[in-house]
């Protein structure tokens, strides 16, 4: 028997809710927001062939679909609460749906976020998720708070996801565990939710790195009305990426995208607080530059020479080549 829309929802996505007042199965979900908190909302759309390859493991795809949204909550310092899922499928294929739901809901359980509704339809494989989180008033991390003199920090390491993409494109050869490491970085990113919460009251501005360091830092600089200087040699990279040619490293680090690490600014006086936040979240943090009063972005190489950034930019879905 063919799997219908409502049977699909019941089998793979209906779960009892613990924190929400009402979840899947009615015209609207009802969220119970704790008194004195604000609701943080974000949404992302993933399209096959644009955001992920058709060969991706469905469980990893389910993980990533939620992870990129949780990363937005992390960048705001919000506590995950609930999410909705809209899913377009070429066909109701149980062999895809079972592992997809498993990967999605395993990450949801890890972060205590509940699936409370959504929609399904027939069409090209497309995943839309909207997340809801809670944050105390005035404590959300914003893109607009960076100030001259602030230090710039980043979590984790950068560039492995772009390295995986280059391997899939055939422009770089990766074998064995090296390929698997890069592929895991691209397909199963770790949202830094605990770090985002720990940075409330410590960081002055924050953003998650989805479209590349240059592009995403550019958003912070534009919203804050400031500039920045970066130290290319300080950018954290894995041993796998460090073993690649210098030009490829630069591309992956500055314009790679899909890292889903947190980039944030913080006053010099907050350095101990920054390091404490990283330790509390169990995440390595690296100081990579500083915020300047003069608009614009300067990236200096190991010899302190300014790189020519003409032609470099973050990922833009509608930019022409």
TrEMBL record:
Pathway: Cofactor biosynthesis; thiamine diphosphate biosynthesis; thiamine diphosphate from thiamine phosphate: step 1/1
Residues annotated to bind substrate: 51, 258, 315
CDD domains: ThiL (cd02194)
Binding site for Mg(2+) 4: 27, 42, 72
Catalytic reaction annotation: thiamine phosphate + ATP = thiamine diphosphate + ADP
Keywords assigned: ATP-binding, Kinase, Magnesium, Metal-binding, Nucleotide-binding, Thiamine biosynthesis, Transferase
Top EC class for this record: transferase
Positions with a binding annotation for ATP: 118-119, 143, 210
Binding, Mg(2+) 5: 211
Domain of life of the organism encoding this protein: Bacteria
Binding residue positions for Mg(2+) 2: 44, 72
Domain spans labelled PurM-like C-terminal: 147-300
GO terms under biological process: thiamine biosynthetic process; thiamine diphosphate biosynthetic process
Keyword Kinase: yes
EC code(s) of this entry: 2.7.4.16
Residues that coordinate or bind Mg(2+) 1: 43-44, 119
GO molecular function: ATP binding; magnesium ion binding; thiamine-phosphate kinase activity
PANTHER family per the UniProt record, alphabetical: THIAMINE-MONOPHOSPHATE KINASE (PTHR30270)
NCBIfam families on file: thiL
Role noted for this protein: Catalyzes the ATP-dependent phosphorylation of thiamine-monophosphate (TMP) to form thiamine-pyrophosphate (TPP), the active form of vitamin B1.
Similarity-based family: Belongs to the thiamine-monophosphate kinase family.
Name of the protein in question: Thiamine-monophosphate kinase
Organism the protein comes from: Ideonella aquatica
């Amino acid at each position: 028997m063919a799997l219908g829309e409502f049977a699909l929802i019941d089998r793979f996505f209906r779960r009892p809710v613990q924190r929400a007042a009402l979840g899947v199965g009615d015209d609207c979900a009802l969220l119970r927001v704790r008194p004195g908190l604000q609701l943080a909302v974000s949404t992302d759309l993933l399209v096959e062939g644009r955001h992920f390859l058709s060969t991706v493991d469905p469980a990893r795809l389910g993980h990533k679909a939620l992870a990129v949204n949780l990363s937005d909550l992390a960048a705001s310092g919000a506590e995950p609460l609930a999410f909705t899922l809209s899913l377009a499928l070429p066909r109701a294929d149980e062999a895809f749906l079972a592992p997809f739901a498993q990967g999605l809901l395993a990450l949801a359980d890890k972060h205590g976020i509940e699936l409370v509704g959504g929609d399904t339809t027939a069409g090209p494989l497309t995943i839309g998720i909207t997340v809801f989180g809670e944050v105390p008033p005035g404590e959300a991390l914003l893109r607009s708070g960076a100030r001259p003199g602030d230090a710039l920090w980043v979590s984790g390491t950068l560039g492995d996801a772009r390295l995986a993409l280059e391997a899939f494109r055939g422009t770089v050869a990766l074998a064995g565990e090296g390929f698997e490491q890069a592929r895991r970085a691209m397909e199963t990113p770790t949202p830094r939710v605990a770090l985002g919460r720990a940075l409330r009251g410590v960081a002055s501005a924050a953003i998650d790195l989805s479209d590349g360091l240059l592009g995403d830092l550019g958003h912070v600089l534009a919203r804050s009305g400031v500039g920045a200087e970066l130290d290319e040699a300080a950018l954290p990279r894995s041993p796998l990426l460090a073993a690649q040619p210098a030009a490829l490293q630069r591309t992956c680090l500055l314009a790679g995208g899909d890292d889903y690490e947190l980039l944030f600014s913080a006053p010099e006086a907050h350095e101990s607080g920054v390091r404490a936040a990283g330790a509390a979240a169990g995440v390595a943090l690296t100081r990579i530059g500083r915020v300047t009063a003069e608009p614009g972005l300067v990236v200096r190489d190991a010899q302190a020479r300014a790189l020519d950034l003409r032609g470099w930019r973050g990922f833009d879905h509608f930019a022409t080549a």
